[in-house]
Amino acid sequence: MANSSFIFLCFLLIFSGSIVVHAMTGTYGINYGKISDNIPAPEDVLRLLRMNKIKNIRIYDADPRVLRAFSGSGIEISVCLPNELLKDVSLNGSIALEWIQVNLQPYLPGTSIRGIAVGNEILGGDTSISEALVPAVRSVYRALRRLGLTKTIEVSTPHSEAVFSSTYPPSNGTFKESMMPYLGPLLHFFNRVGSPFYINAYPFLAYKFDPSHIDINYALFQPNKGIVDPKTKLHYDNMFDAMVDATYVALEKLGYTKMQVIVSETGWASKGDDNEAGADPKNARTYNFNLHKRLMKKKGTPYRPKMLAKGYVFALFNENLKPGPTSERNFGLFKPDGSIAYDIGFRGLVSSAPSKDFVLQGRFWSSQSLIIVVCTIILVLFM
């Protein structure tokens, strides 16, 4: 008995360091961006998320107001170490340690902080900080390990489609050679610590830049003939799955056959400039309704059928202070007042029903109809 207990203890000691934490335990989450001066307070956002049973969110900073408001909610949050801190963190591990101690540790364990995204879309974007990404990721992980938090907080970094040289068909998924000096060591490290690969995948952007060659129904999860990958013979009836599988193929070509792919951003703009094809409320509603339905089925992709597809929709609110084209300010599922931007089955903080209508027993009545009903009841009572 003593020997078996000793063996069991040794087993725990050997494998306790291999426990992998996942920032996203569900399959559907939402990005909570705040580049705006008119969105609801964090306490109201929490109420909105609870009403709609959203349990996974990403924020683009470590806003203490959000972390404080979400304490005890059980909603799992992934925070972000801002791009502007990457160089300093990459050169000095004590800065990463201090950032975690100041910005995250005071809210643990009450607030369910489950992930740290080190920067956002670094590779393929700002080349001046590309070389800082890997050492910054390592610094953050070492700081978490020093604080005993590696089993509760995942380290990751999201990428844009700019890291690929090819994604079509999915079997051609390949990373750019110019990315490999940074991506190679990053993937090696993430594979060692068990982190997923996060990709920002937007069928909207693909359609926007090439509407004449892309079937919008394929982009929107609507009925269409789809495509058949000539190499794998797999059929794809939507672009979202194809983008995820192209990522799996690119990782496999580098030897990472078990690394999970999670979509850190995807969505569809409800408004855009004249040159932004497809940006309208109808398409936004269709994409986001079908995306939610697809992710809630909790199934894999054609190439990875046993690996659940997971994704965070972008975004919770329209953000009126975001720079760039009009579409950038119109990705929200909700308007600034907390009402729904369009109906995908979610509830808003305020009703979006027409103000001149009355709700009676689940049906909408005009004021004239209500007067007729009341008069009829009065007439019957006095007869």
TrEMBL record:
Keyword Iron on entry: no
UniProt cross-references to InterPro entries, sorted A to Z: GH, Glyco_hydro_17, Glyco_hydro_17_plant
Protein name (Swiss-Prot/TrEMBL): Glucan endo-1,3-beta-glucosidase 14-like
Gene giving rise to this polypeptide: LOC107004801
UniProt keyword annotation of Transmembrane helix present: yes
Pfam families: Glyco_hydro_17 (PF00332)
Residue ranges of the TM segments: 364-382
Keywords of this entry: Glycosidase, Hydrolase, Membrane, Plant defense, Signal, Transmembrane, Transmembrane helix
Annotated source species: Solanum pennellii
Family per record: Belongs to the glycosyl hydrolase 17 family.
